[in-house]
C-alpha cells in the first residue's frame, strides 16, 4: 500500500515537475518577445477578465478554439483539457477513495451569480475545503462553479466519456491554499483542482437545487454579459440530487479556456447531474454572450473540443471500493 502510494505520488510529482518546466519555457519565450510591463498588465488583465467576469472586449471565443494558442501559448501545451475519457484505459488505484455528499453540504457565506460572457458562474466566499484527500495532496478551497452547455438539447459537455458527450458540464473550481489566493495559484502546476460533473439535460424531474440558478436567470438576472446578482447561499449538495458520487476519473490537465494554464488536477465524476428539459432551456434560450443593449447572441455550445492525451494516465477509483456501502451517499 505504502509502496504503491509512493509510486503514485512520484508519478504525479514527475508529471507536475515536467509541467512546471514546460510552463517556465513558455513564459520565458513570451517574456523575450514582449516588454515586461506590457506582459504583466496583459497577464493581470487576462486573468481578471476571465475569472472576475470583466470580459468586455474579450479576445477569444468558441468559434475558433484552435487559434487560442496564438495569443495564449499554454493552449498549445501537452497537458490540455478537456479530454475524452476512455474508461477501458483508465488505471484503477486503491489510493482514490469515494467522495461523499457531506463534503458538499456546507453552505458558503456568500454566492454571486454572474454572466461573464463565456459562462454562467457562481462566485463563492466561504466555500468548502478539501483537505489532503483523494490524492489531492494539499488543501484546496472552492471559489466558484460554472456551467458549460449545449444548444437546444444538443451536446455541450467539455469532457466526453467513451466519446459520449452530455448536454452540459458543471465545474467546481478550487485553489490550492499553499498559494496566497486564487490569482497566485491559477498558473501553478498544482494550483487548482476542478471537480467536474456531467449534466444530463432531459430528465423527467426538475432539480430543485438548479432552480436556484435558473429562476434567477428567468427573472432577468445575469442574463447579459457583465450582469451579476447576490443570491441566497445554498450548499452545492443541493445541485447533486439523484447523483451518485461513487465513481470518478482523475488526471492532470489545464483550464479549458484561455489562458489554458496547465494547473488543474481534474476529478470527473461518472454519474451526471440530472436537470429537466425546461431547466436546460433556460440556459439555451435566455442567456446572452453580450452586454445588455448590444447585438444579442445567445450563449451556448461554450465548450472546448477534446485535447490529445499525450501519454497522460487517467486514474479511476478501484472497483472494489465502490461497494463499500456508504450511507452518506
Ligand atoms: Zn469550465
Question: What do you see in this structure?
Answer:
This protein is of the alpha+beta class and 329 residues long. It has a single domain, classed as Roll (Carbonic Anhydrase II), CATH 3.10.200. Helices cover 25% and strands 24% of the residues. Strands 2, 3, 4, 5, 6, 8, 9, 10, 11, 12 and 13 form an eleven-stranded mixed sheet that branches. It has a two-stranded parallel ribbon with strand order 1-7. A hairpin with a 7-residue loop joins strand 5 and strand 6 (139-149). Helix 5 (208-218) packs parallel to helix 6 (277-286). The relative contact order is 0.20. Residues 22-57 have low confidence and may be disordered. It binds zinc ion (ZN). Zinc ion (ZN) binds at residues 146, 148, 171, 256. Zinc ion binds at residues 146, 148, 171, 256.
Amino acid at each position: 500500500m505504502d509502496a504503491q502510494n509512493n509510486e503514485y505520488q512520484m508519478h504525479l510529482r514527475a508529471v507536475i515537475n515536467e509541467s512546471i518546466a514546460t510552463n517556465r519555457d513558455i513564459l520565458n519565450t513570451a517574456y523575450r518577445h514582449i516588454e515586461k510591463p506590457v506582459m504583466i498588465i496583459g497577464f493581470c488583465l487576462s486573468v481578471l477578465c476571465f475569472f472576475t467576469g470583466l470580459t468586455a472586449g474579450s479576445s477569444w471565443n468558441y468559434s475558433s478554439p484552435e487559434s487560442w494558442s496564438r495569443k495564449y501559448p499554454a493552449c498549445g501545451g501537452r497537458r490540455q483539457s478537456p479530454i475524452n475519457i476512455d474508461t477501458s484505459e483508465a488505471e484503477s488505484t486503491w489510493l482514490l477513495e469515494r467522495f461523499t455528499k457531506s463534503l458538499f453540504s456546507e453552505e458558503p457565506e456568500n454566492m454571486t451569480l454572474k454572466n461573464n460572457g463565456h459562462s454562467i458562474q457562481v462566485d463563492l466566499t466561504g466555500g468548502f475545503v478539501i483537505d489532503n484527500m483523494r490524492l489531492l495532496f494539499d488543501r484546496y478551497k472552492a471559489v466558484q462553479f460554472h456551467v458549460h452547455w449545449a444548444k437546444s438539447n444538443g451536446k455541450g459537455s467539455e469532457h466526453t466519456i467513451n466519446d459520449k458527450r452530455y448536454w452540459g458540464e458543471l465545474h467546481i473550481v478550487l485553489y490550492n491554499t499553499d498559494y496566497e489566493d486564487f490569482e497566485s495559484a491559477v498558473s501553478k502546476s498544482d494550483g487548482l483542482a476542478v471537480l467536474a460533473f456531467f449534466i444530463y439535460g432531459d430528465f423527467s424531474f426538475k432539480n430543485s437545487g438548479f432552480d436556484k440558478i435558473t429562476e434567477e436567470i428567468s427573472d432577468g438576472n445575469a442574463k447579459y454579459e457583465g450582469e451579476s446578482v447576490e443570491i441566497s447561499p445554498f450548499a452545492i449538495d443541493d445541485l447533486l440530487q439523484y447523483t451518485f458520487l461513487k465513481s470518478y476519473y482523475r488526471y492532470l490537465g489545464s483550464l479549458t479556456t484561455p489562458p489554458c494554464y496547465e494547473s488543474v488536477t481534474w476529478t470527473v465524476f461518472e454519474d451526471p447531474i440530472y436537470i429537466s428539459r425546461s431547466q436546460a432551456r433556460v440556459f439555451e434560450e435566455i442567456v446572452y454572450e453580450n452586454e445588455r443593449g448590444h447585438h444579442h447572441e445567445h450563449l451556448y455550445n461554450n465548450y472546448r473540443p477534446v485535447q490529445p492525451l499525450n501519454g497522460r494516465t487517467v486514474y479511476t477509483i478501484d472497483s472494489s471500493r465502490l461497494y463499500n456501502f456508504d450511507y452518506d451517499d
